[in-house]
Amino acid sequence: MSHQGKVAIVTGGGGGFGTEISKQLAAKGAKVAVVDIVAENAERVASEIGAAAIALEADIGKAGPVKQVIADTVEAFGGVDIIINNAGLSYPPVKVVNMDEDLYDRVFDANVKSIFHFTKYGVPELDKRGGGAIVNIASTSGVRPRAGNTVYATSKAAAIAFTKSSALELARQNIRVNTVLPVASMTPMLTGMFEDDDGSRIAAMEAGIPLGRLGQPKDIAAGVMFFLSDEAEFITGVALPVDGGWTAG
Ligand SMILES: NC(=O)c1ccc[n+]([C@@H]2O[C@H](COP(=O)([O-])OP(=O)(O)OC[C@H]3O[C@@H](n4cnc5c(N)ncnc54)[C@H](O)[C@@H]3O)[C@@H](O)[C@H]2O)c1
């Protein structure tokens, strides 16, 4: 379907999934605010898209920058219809007893508080357009955690609960809220988490996925685009694993 005339904010738009989601939205006619804490990555993606995109540098774990992103998007494109809360933070495997409290806070700010901020400050803009859609990118970790990943998994479980609860709050405002749960996928996040891997740990993950491969940005973008489509007009509060069967059994 076309998203002509729609305006989308994509957080983490300079990263693996965010790049693909931003480009697919623009290809369907949307105007896109590509938001990232790494300015040069947001700028690269926005410039690859062209006039339909702007790059905005922001730490989405903080209220002030989120409010600025929303204001800048409204100024550039006249409103907001779609919010993709995709930015997130992970870390190499570490047991809770060895984890710094500072890292806990950074993970929760990026993965959970960001969704709170964009819901709190973004919904009034969606209301002005008569409704809209929010898609939060959680993780299969939120329903099927791995050892060494407790805080990340807990943050993603929170993102799933936030999605369902806010979907209930916002349904009568014609705002649908859904979440995509990606399995391990080849993006800078995954390669960063396993930079000391000789290939065997990633190969073991791949072997454990029933469909026999890791996820790719196009798989996750497909889930997002489905939630944004007219065909999904009666779907809200849903957590969709895009995982090659990883959470099925
Ligand atoms: N790749 C995977 O295996 C995988 C699996 C499950 C879920 N996810 C989730 O998918 C989402 C996208 O991940 P990805 O794989 O594309 O990773 P990525 O690292 O390629 O992209 C994430 C982007 O978010 C940005 N970001 C991080 N913290 C930020 C902050 N505080 N403010 C603004 N931007 C910030 C980063 O700069 C980066 O560009 C994340 O929420 C991640 O947790 C990824």
Instruction: Summarize the biggest pleated sheet.
Output: 7 strands, parallel
Highest CATH level, the class: Alpha Beta
What is the mean predicted local confidence, pLDDT?
Answer: 97
CATH superfamily: NAD(P)-binding Rossmann-like Domain
Order of helices and strands: EHEHEHEHEHEHHHE
How many angstroms does the end-to-end distance come to? Answer: 33 Å
How many separate helices? Answer: 8
> In what order do the strands lie side by side in the largest sheet?
3-2-1-4-5-6-7
Considering DSSP H and I runs of 4 or more, what fraction of the residues is helical? 40-55%
Q: What ligands are attached or bound here?
A: nicotinamide-adenine-dinucleotide
- Named CATH architecture: 3-Layer(aba) Sandwich
Coarse morphology? globular
What's the count of strands? 7
Q: By helix and strand content, what is the structural category? A: alpha/beta
How much of the sequence is in beta strands? Answer: 15-25%
| Global Rg | 17 Å
According to CATH, what is the topology?
Answer: Rossmann fold
Low-confidence stretches: none
Q: What is the total domain count? A: 1
Descriptive overview:
This protein has about 250 residues and is α/β, with parallel strands linked by helices. It has a single domain (about 5-235), classed as NAD(P)-binding Rossmann-like Domain (Rossmann fold, 3-Layer(aba) Sandwich), CATH 3.40.50. It contains eight helices and seven strands; from the N terminus they run βαβαβαβαβαβαααβ. The protein has a seven-stranded parallel β-sheet, sandwiched between helices. β1, α1 and β2 (about 30-35) form a beta-alpha-beta unit. It is globular and about 50 Å long. The model has no long low-confidence stretch (mean pLDDT about 95). The structure holds nicotinamide-adenine-dinucleotide.
